[in-house]
Design brief:
Elements lengths: L4 H11 L5 H8 L3 H9 L21 H4 L4 H28 L3 H13 L4 H4 L2 H13 L5 H8 L3 H6 L13 H11 L7 H10 L3 E4 L4 E4 L23 H5 L6 H17 L5 H8 L1
Antiparallel strand pairs: 1-2
Helix pairs in contact: 1-2, 1-14, 5-15, 6-8, 11-12
């Protein structure tokens, strides 16, 4: 049986960002199984909108910036603001025009789950790279997404892994890993966080290449006391993988709420809002 107008409209509000009357009528020609199959038919996991020209640019090295005068610093700050606005406009256009709205919606969901911000990262190309990564794995393996996002330049800067050294372990990433990214409150201890933070010491961003690297001088040379196995590697401590098999109902619950809340509250991030932001 084909979908009614209200069913088609509701379906698009839950799997996309709403639909125009024409799009709703097209979905009305389908039954439920066909509508779901169409939504899940993702031909590509790459954005179709042409990105900004500066996406591969690296930030100036600290030893270079320290010699800048005030005029250079002002020009640099103004350039960052312009790039930030261009990056936002690029994604808004992709949200509006994507041929895979479910993929884009899930990219947005993971963007909120693995949150970062331009305010702290202070380098738009790194946020662009993170956006590409989220889209690439948005409908794929959570294990792959988690292990990859942990080595993403924006995440390394946002959660202070860049400053995580064996002499002074920084717990920000470890805490978010347990509390927000995977297990949820009540499924880990403070000792877990302390040991995980030490296990991730030395996970740094190479400022010369913009790539992830393990700084052997900053890595804590100890066994992973959290899991009681071997030392941490570039893939993280054993516990880092073990938590993937713990209560991941936490993530499933968040996803379920994300889609079901539209049923009860009709909170739709609609196209009209996106058009307003782009203009």
């Amino acid at each position: 049986m084909s979908l009614t107008f209200d069913e088609a409209r509701h379906f698009l509000s839950r799997t996309a960002f709403g639909g125009t009357p024409e799009e709703i009528r097209r979905v009305m020609q389908l039954d439920r199984a066909a509508a779901v199959a169409q939504a899940l038919a993702i031909p590509t996991n790459k954005a179709q909108t042409t990105p900004p020209a500066w996406i591969h640019r690296l930030p100036p090295l600290p030893k270079v910036r320290k010699h800048w005068g005030e005029a250079q610093r002002k020009t640099f700050r103004e350039g960052l603001k312009a790039d930030e606005q261009e990056l936002k406009a690029w994604w808004y256009r992709e949200l509006l025009t994507s041929l895979c709205p479910l993929l884009e919606r899930m990219t947005l969901w993971w963007h909120n789950h693995f949150t970062s911000s331009l305010h702290k990262v202070k380098w738009p190309p790194f946020l662009y790279q993170q956006n590409v990564l989220l889209r690439l794995y948005a409908l794929g393996s959570f294990r792959t997404l988690l292990t990859t996002i942990a080595r993403n330049p924006a995440m390394l800067l946002y959660l202070d892994t860049q400053s995580n050294r064996k002499e002074h372990p920084n717990e920000n990433f470890a805490r978010e890993l347990f509390e927000r990214f995977t297990l949820g409150e009540g499924h880990y201890t403070e000792q877990d966080i302390k040991e995980a933070a030490r296990a991730f010491t030395g996970w740094h961003l190479d400022c010369h290449t913009g790539a992830f690297r393990v700084d052997l001088l900053s890595t804590a040379a100890l066994e992973d006391a959290v899991g009681g196995h071997n030392r941490a590697s570039q893939n993280g401590p054993p516990r880092y993988h073990g938590i993937l098999f713990r209560p991941l109902g936490f993530e499933c619950g968040l996803l379920s709420f994300h889609f079901s809340e539209l049923l009860f509250r009709r909170k739709v991030f609609c196209r009209e809002s996106l058009v307003h932001l782009v203009q």
